[in-house]
Write a structure and sequence with these properties.
Number of helices: 14
Number of domains: 2
Structural class: alpha/beta
Largest sheet: 6 strands, parallel
Strand content: 5-15%
Strand order of the largest sheet: 1-10-7-4-2-3
Shape: globular
CATH superfamily of the largest domain: Dehydroquinate synthase-like - alpha domain
CATH topology of the largest domain: Dehydroquinate synthase-like, alpha domain
Radius of gyration: 20 Å
CATH architecture of the largest domain: Up-down Bundle
Oligomer: single chain
CATH class of the largest domain: Mainly Alpha
Order of helices and strands: EHEHHEHEHEEEEEEHHHHHHHHH
Length: about 400
């Protein structure tokens, strides 16, 4: 008999389909924030009027703006932003941007709560995954301030209480977590995503597809997240091609945002993901592949590898995507191809010389060890990488 516990996250609310200026004014007033530190995409800050709108709405509540967070959230950028936010006496962080900015805000809150002033001190806060898949998390203090997030991509990190942060000296992306790293509120305004480069919006949409697929195909599924993930696939498999065909289709963009939100519900309830996520983390931190692209190149191959043990659940994936007569791996690959996104590791700049390092590093990611079909060592990962080559 199925059993489990469904937990609700420490997030106040999600506002969707409301223009950014209106939603932000209401949320800042509701929270009664007096010193808002804004963390934004550099491109949005330089090339659009979005951050100017934010400045206007915040007025004298604006404590400062950081638009200098690199891809994969480098430690040095996080700590620099932490020190600046500390100096401004910020009482709330607002993010406007993609996953790297979202993770950076979580990290800044954590750093402030744990008196981090230099990058090396982050070693005492990071999770360590042993080669047998066990995750060891140190005790950490809660973040001292929370955030409101306005995402411009679809990777859905704004709904989780975890963050990845890259140690660029060791070329490793590391994990950090605390329940209150989750934002206090999220604002989904599809108009803000118009400025996101097409490849980034669509590929992070595939990342959301990956969340939904590996939730459905998990070794420990849950009924609530099954339902959310199936609806996420319906919304994303229709919405992403609609945005590709007409970038100005705000309804399709909002459906993609809603699909991304629904796709992450499994992770919020500790439903383990699989090897597409696990290998993807290492491709990001070690080979600098954008997260959306890691899902594009790995998910179809991981599905084909796993079909031997979860064919029934994979058929649910195909049906939700409107392709009931196709294998799930082929259905996902067809969606990726229709969006004009890369399909191989070569396409995203990974060299053959990097494959063994990625394979070895993947064994230190917990979600490789929860893949539905057992992965018993680097050679198994290497076989998947070779298939994706």
């Amino acid at each position: 008999m199925m059993h489990g516990i469904h937990q609700y996250p420490p997030m106040d609310r999600v506002i969707y389909g409301v223009p950014l200026a209106e939603a932000l004014a209401e949320e800042v007033s509701r929270i009664d924030a007096r010193a808002v530190y804004v963390m934004a995409s550099g491109t949005l800050n330089r090339e659009t009027d979005v951050i100017e709108t934010v400045r206007r709405v915040l007025g004298n509540r604006l404590a400062g703006v950081c638009a200098k967070i690199g891809s994969h959230t480098p430690r040095i950028d996080v700590v620099a932003a932490t020190n600046e936010a500390r100096a401004t006496k910020a009482d709330l962080i607002l993010t406007v941007g993609g996953g790297s900015v979202t993770d950076a805000a979580k990290m800044v809150g954590l750093c402030l709560g744990n008196d981090i002033t230099v990058p090396e001190q982050l070693d005492r806060l990071k999770a360590v995954v042993t080669s047998d898949g066990k995750t060891e998390r140190p005790a950490v203090n809660a973040p001292s301030i929370r955030s409101i997030d306005v995402p411009t991509t679809l990777s859905a990190g704004e709904f989780t209480a975890m963050a990845g942060c890259t140690d660029t000296l060791r070329n490793r992306k590391e994990g950090y977590a605390h329940p209150l790293m989750m934002p206090q509120a999220v604002i989904l305004d599809p108009a803000v995503t118009i400025h996101t480069p097409e490849w980034l919006f669509l590929s992070t949409g595939v990342r959301a597809v990956d969340h939904a697929v590996e939730t459905i195909c998990s070794i420990q599924p849950a009924p609530f997240s099954d339902g959310m993930a199936l609806q996420a696939l319906r919304l994303l498999s229709a919405g992403l091609p609609a945005v590709k065909a007409n970038p100005g289709d705000l309804e399709a963009r909002l459906n993609c945002q809603l699909g991304a939100w629904m796709s992450i519900m499994g992770a919020l309830n500790n439903v383990p993901m699989g090897a597409s996520h696990g290998i993807g983390h290492v491709l990001g931190g070690t080979a600098h592949v954008p997260h959306g692209y890691t899902s594009c190149v790995m998910l179809p191959h991981v599905l084909r590898f796993n079909e031997l043990v979860n064919a029934v659940r994979q058929s649910w994936v195909s049906e939700a995507m409107g392709r009931p007569n196709q294998a799930a791996g082929d259905a996902v690959a067809a969606l990726i191809a229709s969006l004009g996104l890369p399909a191989t590791l070569r396409d995203v700049g990974v060299t053959r010389e990097q494959l063994d390092e990625v394979a070895a590093g993947s064994m230190h990611d917990r979600w490789v060890h929860t893949n539905p079909r057992k992965i018993d060592g680097p050679p198994s990962v290497r076989a998947l990488l070779d298939a994706a080559w």
